[in-house]
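Quick one: structure for this chain?
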Amino acid sequence: MSTPFAVAFWVAMVLYALAVAGHLYGQSFGKPVWQVRSTRVVLAGLALHTVLIGWWWFDTGRAPVVGNFENALVSAWFV
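Got it. Here's what it folds into:
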């Protein structure tokens, strides 16, 4: 795993975490604007996650389905 890939991976994870926090805040305090913002953050994280799957596929030359990390990377995309 290259350093740029690892950084992009963690950026995607942080985006997902921020989106969860934003949705919880919006739900808890009745702030619908936070829910809209959180949805946009989720979509940004999903877009980056999709790029990461393609990047891994390109680097390895095969579908990312071998090994625990690859299975988790692809499976998390479906969640």
